[in-house]
Amino acid sequence: MDLSYLFFLSSGLFLGWSLGANDAANIFGTAVGSKMVRFRTIAMVAAVFVILGAVFGGAGTSETLGALGAVNALAGAFMVALSAALAVYFVLRMGVTVSTSQAIVGAIIGWNLYAGKPTDYETLAEICLTWIICPLISGVVAVILYFIIKKLLKYSSMHLLILDQLTRTGLILTAALGAYALGANNIANVVGVFVPSSPFKPVHIGSVLTLNPQQVLFLLGSLAIGAGILTYSKKVIMRLGNSLMRMTPMLALIVVLAQAIVLLLFSSVSLHNWLIAHSLPALPLVPVSSTQAVIGAIVGLGLAKGGRTIDWGIIGKITVGWVAAPLMALGICFVSLFFLANVFNQTVYLP
Amino acid sequence: MFNAKFSLFSGAHELEQKIDEMHDQVLESSLYFKEAFEIYLQEGRSQNYRRASKKIKNIEAKADDLRREIESRLYIRNLIPDLRADVLMLVENIDKVINEFDEVAHKFYIEQPEIPTDFQAKFRLLVKQVCECSENMVICSRAFFRDFATVRDYSRKVYFLEHESDKTWAALKQDVFDSDMELAHKIQLNTLIEDLADVADKAEDCIDAVLIFTIKRDI
Question: Which residues lie across from A210 on neighbouring strands?
Fold first, then answer.
């Protein structure tokens, strides 16, 4: 394998690392912040499941990103991933949570514009629609879970201490599920643009497991996400704390579970095929933002509890960030591709 | 699998038992206090009263040990981190009610107040009310750990009984100071009446806190 490939892939791996560092807070931030679970335990679980999700469940969403724009040159893919990472970085500096999924979509459209390739507007519309329906579905799922769990707790008369133990176990299990869903859904953001130029060959692990070239690429990307979780997410969790809304461990469990369910709905190929086979409306397989899903769930719970706890000013600021991130990524990508092609003489697209 | 499940919940079960035992101590101290007070009215500072008052002292000592054990277990096992401070405060409030029973029983033993026959009925009523108040506090406080609806029901009962004991306390004080007893005797009885009423006040304080903790516990 050409070493230059690994150099170009580094921007994707960097994006993966920052995704792991930032999005881990969505999966187990409150569990660690409230001292219900030790960081080391839950971070290890999340890192393992993020890898499993990416390798075994990541194919569906990367196909959709590919349909939006098949970045066919390695240097172009490098710049698309780097632009998305930079956009995420700048918007985060403005103090607004941001979606890697949106940034990568903006960057791909930037590449399409630069390369003169047509953007599939049907796919784009489908993706943009998910940015609206993802937090909505997440909010609805969270509210349903909230009322079910509230009723169950009311009738179970479970002792506070036993409930505490069950909540801890639940937080670890939902973190595993959330991490699997994050890996499956968001791996396309991290290395999806490198799929068309992937030089990997199938890898056989023993006689039972064979990873195809795409899965090998996803494994590398997910290792970067895992590294982000293990090395930097604790700092992000400690910095953010409960800034969005003060949550009890049980509410945190509901939020993570809602987020995991929504991310799986948007990434499970089997579920997608099953719904279509039964003539039911299927959700598109699109990388959605775990941050948006979490915010949707929190707003849903806030409304279910009377709506007094929601700070609409912060929600407005977040929404502005959601619009700014893809636009910024588009702009950075377009300008950077120009420099990469004309100053560094790199092939950023194949005609 | 069984072992893993067992160890996961065993710490919680042990602590649950300790908290239940702590509540049992309030009930026992209340029952022994009623018994001791009746003995005092009939026999004064007799051997029987001494034994009854000793029982309350032992309960108080056991409750102190339980409180310390619950506190250390909560911290060592890192249980209920979000509600730990609330549970500790609750256990301390329960302990204060037991301490108050012990203090009053001991005061009767040391001071040997003479309770005129005319006042005995009201004294009995006050003791009955404060004991019932503390017993209902136990039901309410236990429910905090399991059943929110019961917390609300029994908190109303505790508030009602505390209010009734306040009325008895005021009437009894008035009777004492309207009587022909010597001022020193009046002041002695007055202090004891206030100490008795304090049991119900402490139970009420405990329930005030439980109601706030219940709001915090709601998901």
Answer: A204
